[in-house]
């Protein structure tokens, strides 16, 4: 049986409102989520010996989340990932977004869905957050009603994203948690073993925009179809890390995305999703300057993200899966994070 409790997490400056923390607890997991950016602030998982550790990077208090930081645990939108030059067309009309990661737009803009207070509703086994993104917010067309629902069932955390638009708009929502299965604060993820259910991936240009090619992973560093040990793999292929979209096998139904195993603790994370892609990001831009929970510092490669989502820049690449949501339609995607020990 699980439980959900709520508490005040902090006050936003200038009367911006109260941020609450929701604790979802099952016999296997404890997950903390705050109403600022629908952000996961902690996930406690037991190891083989039954010792619990927090396996996500984050901050001890609200100030940490309000500073400039790389989307720790947050829901990102209206469009996660990059839009080339922050420009796109919908039905012949051109839209321009802020170029917050020059020369592109990243993760919804200057004030994306990660930097707003959501309205919470406690459920029997989770919490639902909702908000209305106003017409023109961050330059996007139309009003967007959004619901993000986290529910816990044993070792599985489910995240469901729903949205409805008043005008045709691109929508791409994901969660940006950084995991370290050795326990957050551990110096790197090199001893993690990674498997990705993808026969193809998207090569990118120097600004991390997909070139348009859907390339086979066969014979490349991107072939993660059989487990690889991350540190050795990066070394073998002289890679600075991953920051790439893997094109997932499978339909719009729930399908397997990735498995990450940390042999020493026995912790395993398996991800399933209804999305067509996953951005596998190995924390390449972390640089050890942020002060994390329990005195942790987060150097390069100290966490990994599995951002299940539509393919980056899909709004400008007609052969990518459709990203436009039209009035009367419903955006409805789910991702499952399943923790176990093996
Ligand atoms: C992107 C990275 C970016 C990181 C944090 C990831 O989703 O792919 O390029 O640095 O988010 O901003």
UniProtKB/TrEMBL annotation:
List of residues binding beta-D-galactose: 81-82, 176-178, 243
Cytoplasm keyword on record: yes
Main location: cytoplasm
Enzyme Commission number(s) from the entry: 5.1.3.3
GO MF annotation: an example: aldose 1-epimerase activity
Catalytic activity: alpha-D-galactose = beta-D-galactose; alpha-D-glucose = beta-D-glucose
Pathway the protein contributes to: Carbohydrate metabolism; galactose metabolism; Carbohydrate metabolism; hexose metabolism
GO biological-process terms attached to the record: galactose catabolic process via UDP-galactose, Leloir pathway; glucose metabolic process
PROSITE patterns assigned to the protein according to its UniProt record, in alphabetical order: ALDOSE_1_EPIMERASE
Location(s), subcellular: Cytoplasm
Pfam families found in the cross-reference section: Aldose_epim
Keywords, in A-Z order: Carbohydrate metabolism, Cytoplasm, Isomerase, Phosphoprotein
Any single GO CC term annotated in Swiss-Prot or TrEMBL for this entry: cytoplasm
Signal peptide: none
Active site residues per record: 176 (proton donor), 307 (proton acceptor)
Subunit structure: Monomer.
Similarity field: Belongs to the aldose epimerase family.
Protein purpose: Mutarotase that catalyzes the interconversion of beta-D-galactose and alpha-D-galactose during galactose metabolism. Beta-D-galactose is metabolized in the liver into glucose 1-phosphate, the primary metabolic fuel, by the action of four enzymes that constitute the Leloir pathway: GALM, GALK1 (galactokinase), GALT (galactose-1-phosphate uridylyltransferase) and GALE (UDP-galactose-4'-epimerase). Involved in the maintenance of the equilibrium between the beta- and alpha-anomers of galactose, therefore ensuring a sufficient supply of the alpha-anomer for GALK1.
Name listed for the protein in its UniProt record: Aldose 1-epimerase
Gene from which this protein is expressed: GALM
């Amino acid at each position: 049986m699980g439980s959900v409790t709520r508490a005040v997490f902090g006050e936003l400056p200038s009367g911006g409102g109260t941020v609450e923390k929701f604790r979802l607890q099952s016999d296997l997991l404890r997950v903390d989520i705050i109403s600022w950016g629908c952000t996961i602030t902690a996930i406690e998982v037991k190891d083989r010996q039954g010792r619990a550790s927090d396996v996500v990077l984050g901050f001890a208090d609200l100030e940490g989340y309000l500073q400039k930081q790389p989307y720790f645990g947050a829901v990102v939108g209206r469009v996660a990932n990059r839009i080339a030059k922050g420009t796109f067309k919908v039905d012949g009309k051109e839209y321009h977004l802020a170029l917050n990661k020059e020369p592109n737009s990243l993760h919804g803009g200057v004030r994306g869905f990660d930097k707003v207070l959501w309205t919470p509703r406690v459920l029997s086994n989770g919490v639902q957050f909702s908000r209305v993104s106003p017409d023109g917010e961050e330059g996007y067309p139309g009003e967007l009603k959004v619901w993000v629902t986290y529910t816990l069932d044993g070792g599985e955390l489910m995240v469901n994203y729903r949205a409805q638009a008043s005008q045709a708009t691109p929508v791409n929502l994901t969660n940006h948690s950084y995991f370290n299965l050795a326990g957050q604060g551990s110096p790197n993820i090199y001893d993690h073993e990674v498997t990705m259910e993808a026969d193809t991936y998207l090569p990118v240009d120097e600004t991390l925009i997909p070139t348009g090619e859907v390339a086979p992973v066969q014979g490349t560093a991107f072939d993660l179809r059989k487990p690889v040990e991350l540190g050795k793999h990066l070394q073998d292929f002289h890679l600075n890390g991953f920051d790439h979209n893997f094109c997932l096998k499978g339909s719009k139904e729930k399908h397997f995305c990735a498995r990450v195993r940390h042999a020493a603790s026995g912790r395993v994370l398996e991800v399933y999703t209804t999305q067509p892609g996953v951005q596998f990001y190995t924390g390449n831009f972390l640089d050890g300057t942020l002060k994390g929970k329990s005195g942790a510092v987060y150097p390069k490669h100290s966490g990994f993200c599995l951002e299940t989502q539509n393919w980056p820049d899909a709004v400008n690449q007609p052969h990518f899966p459709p990203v436009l949501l039209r009035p009367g339609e419903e955006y409805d995607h789910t991702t499952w994070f399943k923790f176990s020990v093996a």
